[in-house]
Amino acid sequence: MVAQGGHTPGREELQATLGRFTGVVRQTPPKFSAVKVNGERAYDLARKHLEFEIAEREVTVFSLVLVSYDGANAGAALEVVCSGGTYVRSLVQTSRTRSARLRTRRSYGGWQLDRLPLITR
After folding, report:
1. How many other CB atoms are found less than 10 A from the CB of residue 8?
2. 77 within some domain
3. Is 60 a member of any domain?
4. If DSSP codes are grouped into helix, strand and coil, which group holds residue 113?
5. Residues 6+ apart with CB under 8 A from 34
6. CATH code of residue 102
7. Parent domain of 41
8. Do residues 48 and 114 make contact, with C-beta atoms less than 8 angstroms apart?
9. Alpha carbon separation from 63 to 15, 67, 75 (Å, rounded)
10. What whole-number distance in Å separates Cα of residue 21 and Cα of residue 35?
11. By the number of CB atoms within 10 A of the CB, which of 35, 39, 84, 113 ranks highest?
12. For residue 9, what are the CA distances in angstroms to 25, 50, 60?
């Protein structure tokens, strides 16, 4: 969602911006993340409303593709192929495409999730 009076990028502008976020990028994980800060999970510290900093880290974004764009509602769907430890929501915030929706994760660690057997109890 874009703040009132904020700039909503057009499809072409958004597409041009996404290319800057592929390769090795530096990102700061969000406060509500599982990253450990002085031995404690960041989300635990955030829930206690404590002030703390999370160090930037390098992650790799192998591809970042604009799948669909809805200019009328300031929305976009992205397909991201990235290394472990990447916080996609941080990528979205960094790229100023805060309205981007995340599609369902389709693979993890080389496994295609739609090809995994269903496990029932």
Report:
1. 15
2. yes
3. yes
4. helix
5. 41, 42, 43
6. 3.30.2350.10
7. 11-115
8. no
9. 12, 12, 19
10. 22
11. 35
12. 22, 35, 24
Q: Report DSSP letters for 10-55, one per residue.
A: -HHHHHHHHGGGSEEEEE---SSSS-EETTEEHHHHHHTT------
23 lies in some domain? yes
The count of domains in the chain is 1
Rounded CA separation 107/12 (Å): 28
Q: Calculate the dihedral angle through the C-alpha atoms of 97, 95, 69, 75, rounding to the nearest 10 degrees.
A: -10
DSSP state of 96: T
Structural domain contains residue 111: yes
pTM of the model: 0.65
CA gap 42, 47 in Å, rounded: 9
Give, for 89, the enclosing helix (H) or strand (E): helix 88-94
Q: Which residue has the higher pLDDT, 48 or 103?
A: 48
